[in-house]
Design a protein that fits this description.
Radius of gyration of chain B: 25 Å
Strand order of the largest sheet of chain B: 1-2
Number of domains of chain A: 2
Strand order of the largest sheet of chain A: 6-7-8-3-9-10
Number of helices of chain A: 9
CATH superfamily of the largest domain in chain A: P-loop containing nucleotide triphosphate hydrolases
CATH architecture of the largest domain in chain A: 3-Layer(aba) Sandwich
Number of strands of chain A: 20
Distance between the termini of chain B: 40 Å
Structural class of chain B: mainly alpha
Radius of gyration of chain A: 25 Å
Number of helices of chain B: 25
Oligomer: heterodimer
Helix content of chain A: 10-25%
Strand content of chain A: 25-35%
Largest sheet of chain B: 2 strands, antiparallel
Shape of chain A: elongated
Structural class of chain A: alpha+beta
Shape of chain B: globular
CATH class of the largest domain in chain A: Alpha Beta
């Protein structure tokens, strides 16, 4: 597969307030995105993900580093000279143009002949399900329809790189999930290389081939969604993606770790030295609770909450640590009560590399 | 139960509020609507009852026809030029990274806070019979600045700042993301402007044009100074009919004719264009860092901004020079005797002007906030009428209002002519609309539940307004105050009908001095007036700064 988007040592500083030191928004960004892949930039607000997207689009100029689209270096080009199209968070639909003209805007800028414009806009409107609304004004559209116009306006240009700036954050929850599926299907059907910014981890997981977790302007981890979830490389990533239990344990052998006297399985794909104390991560749904005594740690239920599809428990271990456990289908399987004694076992615990 | 009855019943539960609604409504009817209706009625008065005789004169007499044609022609051209100039300045100062933005902004709006015809006086100094440029630089003997171009030039100078302020707001209201989006899909800078920014600002451009058109139609001072006898215009002609020929019905007829284009423009501006303003879909506010124009275009635009700034500086420098020169054109000795005249003979006028302004400003400010509050937050029969009446005066030319006040308050039951009160009332009701508009805009952004909470905790309607609403809208209140004060100090068109031997105003004095050829004294008066206004604006501005902070802490 060929690389469609390449970022090399990208750094962006903004001038500090009142002559203070410059604020580094993103730093030391190295990324390669393969042709047709969907990459998500994920992180808390202020982590630099939107700045990075705007650097790619050309709205900001990098302080240092290079941006390559295929074998063309673009970081010194104006936004309109870059083969990208961006779906804005606010949609940025031109309020004085109707749906058709909004979608046709980019083609008209490129002086595409009228007949071709009609054909391509028609096809794209069909693709996003807006056929029949060509002459509507943007103000007469629902949020989802505006979203589709913004999307159509971009894909009609068949850009080399498609950019998304939290495009679904203004929609209600149901519509958001539906659009998420549509965006992913469309992106895969068109095979367009895409970069997608979001702070919603579920969205990131559902959409992407590759997730980039960002923290304070730097890349914390790049991995496919599954790896990111089960093998986070830091406490930050583990904490940001889903819920996580952090435990401290001593490595007994390559397969076993001792946590507060209980022997628990150790994930095998990150080699650690026997006898060493390590930080471990385990997801709540990998924690198993049983009433009967047996192998594992004994604990007491400190808090129990029924959440419909699963129950959430805080279990206090003899060491004083709290472990969060999720048990599926509590409506049929019944719940533990607060104060119940339980035996805690887990799936493989994932060791975290020591924090730098 | 009908809606009106239900609303009334709700209002009756709060007697103090009900009383206020009735009082405000009555005041608006008496001091806004009634005078205008009287002017209309009086325009039909003939020696033998009511008839169309006066209007037939409009067709018969060339003087009146010309006055109408001239006023319309001047207003159209001034509207167009002011909007073009205003747009260029607004665009340069808000969309490009040129130096000295703050300075240029302040210079550009300086004409707003000075008497509306100080430009005319400068033009006389520079291009009049003894003008610095025409007579001494170019040696012209027969050049006359009076007439069409003189009025157009001084009005463009006067009204470009108004167009600029309004268009600045329009440009600021265009979401920069739209420009990013256009560039992102391949538009060049010029295409972004032509296909996105310009079309989006067109309603604002039309609106600014109509506002300047209304102002130009209603303008009194510039035409009176610069039109000259060969170039009649409606507003001064109406004044001359009344004060020169003592023919009230004809003056009323001309005023009524003046009212038609002004109200039409106002109606278009408010009810047609107002609805066409584009509201951009909200999202995360991101400031665009894209450069809107290339360097060549940027400096070209900025050159124009500088040019306008230089004209402003030159005009005021000339006024200052004229105020300190013995006899302009003949004797350029430095002297303070014009100022001595102002502080000696003219001192009463200065005092009167300040008193009237100080008395009308707070009343106007409070009334504006009160009406805004009632209109936005309360439901009662006649609410729409109240909003309409309270802003109607913005569109009614001062000449009409002035004549209306003479007609309305010269006899029983309310005899006010020649008093301090009539000046104050006139200013209060004429300059309240801006405060109301500001108040409405701010109130619509404040969550009503804050006020509901106050009532829920036991405050009645008036206490809620006083303790909760007023502090929240303090910034709008103070900017309304600034506007009311500046206008009260600089107004002329209505006031000139209402001044008397006992109560005179500086603006009227300035016009009188110009009329009798004493430009030096007129200039000295202008300088003193400008100084008072700037000091007052500074003082109120300092207060606003503090109040705005408290308002912000209350809100969050």
């Amino acid at each position: 597969m060929s690389v469609d988007l390449r970022l090399v040592g990208l750094r962006k500083e903004f001038p500090g307030h009142d002559g203070g030191p410059p604020v580094v928004a993103v730093d030391d960004i190295r990324l390669e995105v393969e042709k047709g892949a969907m990459l998500t930039l994920l992180g808390p607000s202020g982590c630099g993900k939107t700045t990075l997207l705007r650097l790619i689009a050309g709205f900001e100029e990098a302080t240092r580093g290079e941006i390559w689209f295929g074998d063309k270096r673009v970081d010194r080009l104006a936004p309109n000279a870059r083969d990208t199209a961006m779906v804005f968070q606010s949609y940025a639909i031109f309020p004085h143009l109707d749906v058709f003209e909004n979608v046709a805007f980019g083609l008209r800028m490129a002086r595409v002949p009228e007949a071709r414009v009609r054909e391509r806009v028609g096809r794209v409107l069909d693709l996003v399900g807006l056929t029949g609304l060509e002459r509507r004004a943007p103000s007469q559209l629902s949020g989802g329809q505006q979203q589709r116009v913004a999307l159509a306006r971009c894909i009609v240009l068949e850009p080399q790189v498609l950019l998304f700036d939290e495009p679904l954050s203004n929609l209600d929850a149901k519509l958001r999930e539906q659009m998420r599926i549509e965006v992913r299907e469309l992106q895969q059907r068109l095979g367009v290389t895409s970069v997608y910014v979001t702070h919603d981890q579920a969205e990131a997981m559902a959409l992407s081939d590759l997730v980039v977790v960002m923290n304070r302007g730097r890349i914390a981890q790049v991995a496919p969604p599954q790896d990111l979830y089960s093998r986070p490389n830091s406490r930050f990533v583990a904490d940001f993606i889903g819920k996580a239990n952090f435990l401290s344990g001593t490595v007994v052998d390559t397969r076993t770790v001792d946590v507060a006297g209980a022997r628990l399985p150790l994930s095998s794909d990150a080699p650690v030295a026997v006898g060493k104390t390590v930080d471990l991560v385990v997801r709540p749904e990998a924690v198993v609770l049983r009433r009967e005594e047996g192998q594992g740690a004994r604990g007491v239920i400190a808090r129990a909450a029924f959440l419909g599809d699963h129950a959430e428990y805080d279990v206090r271990l003899p060491s004083g640590d709290l472990v969060v456990a999720h048990e599926a289908n509590p409506a049929e399987r019944g719940m533990f009560g607060v104060g119940d004694q339980v035996t805690v076992t887990t799936g493989p615990l994932h060791p975290l590399p020591p924090e730098a | 139960m009908s809606r009106a009855a239900r609303e009334l019943r709700l209002l009756a539960r709060d007697p103090l509020l009900l009383g206020l609604v009735v009082l405000v409504m009555a005041a608006l009817l008496v001091f806004v609507l009634y005078p205008v209706l009287l002017v209309l009625r009086h325009s039909f008065v003939t020696p033998d009852g009511l008839g169309l005789d006066n209007y037939e004169l409009l067709a018969q007499r060339r003087l009146y026809r010309n006055a109408l044609r001239n006023s319309l022609g001047v207003a159209t051209l001034v509207g167009a030029l002011s909007v073009v100039f205003g747009y260029v300045i607004a665009f340069s100062l808000s969309r490009t990274d040129v130096p000295f933005k703050r300075v240029m902004h302040n210079l550009t709006i300086l004409p707003i806070v000075s008497p509306p015809f100080s430009g005319a006086i400068s033009i006389l100094f520079l291009f009049g019979f003894n003008g610095l440029v025409t007579r001494y630089l170019l040696g012209l003997q027969n050049f006359s600045i009076y007439g069409f171009w003189g009025v157009v030039a001084s009005q463009v100078f006067t009204f470009t700042p108004i167009a600029y302020l309004s268009l600045r707001g329009v440009l600021a209201g265009i979401n920069p993301t739209l420009e990013d989006a256009a560039m992102n899909v391949g538009a060049s800078r010029w295409q972004v402007f032509r296909r996105v920014v310009l079309p989006l600002s067109l309603p604002g451009v039309a609106s600014a044009f109509l506002v300047v058109f209304i102002e130009s139609m209603a303008d009194f001072g510039n035409p009176l100074v610069l039109a000259g006898a060969a170039f009649p215009m409606l507003a001064p002609q109406a004044y001359l009919e009344i004060t020169g020929s003592f023919n009230l019905p004809r003056g009323a007829m001309l005023a009524a004719v003046l009212l038609v284009p002004s109200l039409t423009a106002f109606a278009i501006q408010r009810y047609y264009i107002g609805k066409r303003q584009y509201v951009t879909v909200t999202g995360k506010p991101t400031a665009s860092t894209t450069k809107a124009v290339g360097p060549a275009a940027k400096w070209l635009l900025y050159a124009f901004v500088l040019f306008f700034g230089v004209v402003v500086v030159a005009f005021y420098a000339v006024i200052l020079l004229g105020a300190t020169t013995a006899v302009w054109g003949f004797d350029y000795t430095l002297t303070l005797r014009h100022f001595r005249y102002v502080f000696d003979v003219g001192w009463d006028t200065v005092k009167d002007t300040i008193l009237v302004a100080i008395a009308s400003t707070p009343v106007s400010g409070l009334l504006g906030m009160l009406i805004a509050f009632l209109v936005v937050r309360r439901r009662f029969p006649g609410r729409g009428a109240m909003e309409f009446l309270s802003i109607l005066n913005f569109a009614v030319p001062g000449t009409v209002v002035g004549i209306g006040y003479i007609l309305a308050f010269n006899g029983p039951p309310l005899i006010l002519t020649g008093t301090f009160l009539i000046l104050v009332l006139n200013f209060v009701f004429r300059y309240v609309p801006v405060g109301i508009q500001n108040g409405i805009a701010v109130l619509r952004q404040i969550d009503p539940s804050i006020e509901e909470a106050a009532q829920n905790l036991g405050a009645d309607g008036v206490t809620t307004f006083r303790k909760v609403t007023l502090p929240l809208i303090a910034p709008a209140f103070f900017s309304g105050l600034v506007f009311a004060f500046v206008r009260a100090m600089t107004a002329i068109s209505a006031a000139i009908f209402l001044v008397s031997a006992n109560w005179n105003l500086m603006t009227v004095q300035i016009l009188n001095q110009v009329g009798s050829g004493r430009l030096g004294v007129a200039a000295a008066f202008s300088i003193v007036l400008l100084a008072i206004v700037l000091v007052a604006v500074g003082v109120i501005g300092a207060l606003v700064g503090r109040r705005a902070e408290t308002a912000a802490t209350v809100r969050f």
